[in-house]
Amino acid sequence: MESLPNGETLTLPTSEERTWAMLAQLSVLTNLLTGFLGPVIALIIYLVYKERSRYVAYQSLQSFIFQLIWWVGAGAVAGIAWTISGVLAVVCIGCCLMPFALVVSLMPVAALIYGVVGAVQCSQGNDFRYWLIGDWVRGTYTGKG
To answer: What are 73-80's contacts with CB under 8 Å, separation 24+?
Structure first.
């Protein structure tokens, strides 16, 4: 147990909690095979652990929201960008947009890498927070957001 500056005590996650938090983060890799099941796995882990472990619940909820935004959302935006640039290629304007579509297509790959970084952090028992998402999820989860 560690003491926080505000007087609260922080319990370190158990080995089982670290493993499940890591699996929630690694669920992003299932998107490579299925295209969409990663958020479902993270959500299932959250639903199972939301009453049993705050650590696992927080990490899995973060992973779920992160995957919805960066895998599903960025994948849809990439598909739209390629469609628009393909249609506009007929009039040569789309050729200028193809580099933009290529960059947008790499966003889900970046999400995979970030998810693996989160999994490594969780396996070590660290309190991993996704940029912009982590604080919002923590505030929502604890009722302070």
So the answer is: 74/104, 74/107, 74/108, 74/111, 75/35, 75/108, 77/104, 77/107, 78/104, 78/105, 78/107, 78/108
Q: In this structure, what DSSP letter does residue 126 have? A: -
Q: Which residue ranges of the chain lie beneath pLDDT 70?
A: 1-10, 90-97, 140-145
User: Which residues, at least 6 apart from 42, have a Cβ–Cβ distance to it below 8 Å?
Assistant: 24, 27, 60, 61, 63, 64, 67
The ranges assigned to domains in the chain are: 14-137
Residues found in the chain: 145
Amino acid at 124: Q
Predicted model pTM: 0.66
How far apart are the C-alpha atoms of 107 and 114, rounded to whole Å?
Answer: 11
Is the separation of the CB atoms in 23 and 33 below 8 Å? no
Reduce the DSSP state of residue 3 to 3 states and report it.
strand
pLDDT digits (tens, 9 = 90+) for 42-60: 999 999 998 998 889 999 9
Identify the CA nearest to 20 among candidates 99, 135, 123: 123
